[in-house]
Structure formats: structure tokens, C-alpha cells
Amino acid sequence: MKAFVYHGPGEAAWEDVPDPDLEEPGDVVVRVDTTTICGTDLHILKGDVPDVRPGTVLGHEAVGEVVEAGGDVRSVRPGDRVLVSCVTACGRCRYCREAAYGQCLGGGGWILGHNINGTQAEFVRLPYADMSVHPLPGAITGEEAVLLSDILPTAYEVGVLNGRIGPGDTVVVVGAGPIGLAAIVTARLFSPGRIIAVDKAPARLETAKRLGADVVADAAEDPEQLVSELTDGLGADVVIEAVGVPETFEACTRMVRPGGHVANIGVHGRPVTLHLEQLWDRNLTLTTGLVDTFSTPTLLGMLTAGRLPASELVTHSFGLHDMEEAYDIFSRPADTGAMKVVLNRHQEPRAVEPVAGRPATG
């Protein structure tokens, strides 16, 4: 089969690899019909996640069809269409019993495209299938459903729920990429009084406004002052960091009110200074987190009912074999306008204007 294989920082390729086989009775093998690229995959390519070994197939999001199932699998069978969760759960360890699946001690957690071969491939082996794949209604498209693998539960759990957004709150989302936009969409479920989106890309700010941001702010034009003016100097109730660089994290801590919440979603590849000399007396709650995906069934129900505008986050669609081009487009959003790209088996790419530039795959 073909798969997108990581060979070290700046080096990856769509190439032939062996087909996956069942290794444990709880495994399934899924034929990948739809997958996508995550910002975390770009962090891996930059070398920000050094525990990813060369030779690993990347990717942790997919929709597909079960083609083989181990003898212990009870929830799905060959022929079933399923959503692949980005987090694998053994279901038995202390953390899984607390629904903290991202911290699984039994061989799960974020392992796809990290510790084992992932989903940017024609086929993928999935351990602990009963806890880690979800049967899908036929009415939901793969393009919609694949956003429930990672970005929607991540934004909802690590941003919105950790931030404890409540009715009437002023919420600032710093970073209007796919995760930030998903945070805006899911924050609206809690009736905040005002959502402010901060980014440096005009196209992303426009999308943020369309998806529910009440105010948008150019990151280069003093958004901290804007937040202060809109809150009469108090600051925001909740600030969500969805970029993953020191400058944006520090800005979040300056925009939040005393007693407020800073919810960090961004994947940080560099050390960040926590200015406790300025923050120690402000009664702040700071949260970090890896998604647990406990909310996936809830979000799937809302998607089925038409409550989540998931497809509006997708800007580009490719055939599965166009993986390297998709990485190039996704890695240069300022030039290409890419938000979320999806790749579909046996699908021709949408009409996309040719763009110049060095491929992200090195």
C-alpha cells in the first residue's frame, strides 16, 4: 500500500509500505476513505516532536471501512463505516476509567502517527477498537466526520470546557486556524456574550466572523488594547491560546481578567515564560491538555442533528495520492488560504490554483 512516511525533520514522502495486519485480538484494520492533515503533523515535520521515529506513517484522523477485525472486537465488524479517534484508549487503566483517554497507561493515548503508524495511508491498524472507533451514520459525509477525529473534540474539550465558558462571558480566541475556528464554533454552544478572534491573516479573520466571532482583531494592531476597551479595562473571562508560540501565550495571560481562565490548546515547540511575578496575585486558572475525545459521541450527535457547521472549516479537498501537494497547500495558509484540507480515496482534487513554493515534505 501507499502511505505518507516521516524520515526525519523536513523529510517525508508518499511511498510504498507493507500492508498492516492484525496484531492483537482487539485490533481492526480500516481502509482509509478520508483523512486530513493536522498542525501537529507540521510540528512533527519541523522536528518539534522528537519521539516520532523515522519510518513512521503520519496522521491520526480518518474515516473508513473496517476490513478486518480481531476476535475480541464487539462494537464493529468488517463492512462497517467508522470514525477513527485521534486518541486510542485501552479502557482499563486508571486514566481511561476517568475518561482521561489522552493519558492512557495501557498502550493508548496519542499513538497514531506518533508511536505507531498512522492514518495518512491506504490502510491503518487500530488497537483497542471497541474504545477507539465510532460507527458512523450514513448521512454524514467523510469530509464532515473526519473533523470529529481531532479538531472539534480538541477545541471543545481543551479550549471550551477547560476554559469553563459560560453564558455572557467575553471569550478571546487567539489563532483562527482550524483549531481556533473549531473553538469559536463550539464556544457558541454556551451562549457567551462576545467572542473576539485574533489572527494575522485577513482570510482567517473573515472565516472566524462567518462562523460566529462577534469581533475580529488583527494580531499586529494591538488586540490587547481592543480587549481592554471592549471590557472596560477588566479583561476577558476566557482566553483560548490556539497558536503554540511564546508570544501568543504571553499575550493571552495579559488579556485575561483577574479570576479568569487561560486555556492553552496550542502545541508548543519552544519554551514559554510564565510571568508569575505579574500573575501570582490575579487568581488565574491556567489549563493545558491533550484531547481525551470523551466528547466525540456528543459532538457526533450534534453533527448528525445539523448543529455543527463542520464542513465550513474545509477549504481544500484532494485525492489520497495527492498527499505531498496537500501538505504543501496546508503548510502555507497565508499564500493558499488553507484552513482544513481533506484527502479522499479515489477522488480527484478540487480545482486549486497552482502555487509556487518549496514542498513542505522537504
UniProtKB/TrEMBL annotation:
Cofactor section: Zn(2+)
Keywords per UniProt: Metal-binding, Oxidoreductase, Zinc
Domain of life: Bacteria
UniProt cross-references to Gene3D superfamilies, sorted A to Z: Medium-chain alcohol dehydrogenases, catalytic domain (3.90.180.10), NAD(P)-binding Rossmann-like Domain (3.40.50.720)
Record-linked Pfam families: ADH_N, ADH_zinc_N
Transmembrane regions: none
PROSITE patterns noted in UniProt: ADH_ZINC
CDD domains (UniProt xref): FDH_like_ADH2
Span of the signal peptide: none
InterPro entries per the UniProt record, alphabetical: ADH-like_C, ADH-like_N, ADH_Zn_CS, ER, GroES-like_sf, NAD(P)-bd_dom_sf
Span of domain Enoyl reductase (ER): 8-343
Family indicated by similarity: Belongs to the zinc-containing alcohol dehydrogenase family.
Protein name: Zinc-dependent alcohol dehydrogenase family protein
Organism name: Streptomyces thermolineatus
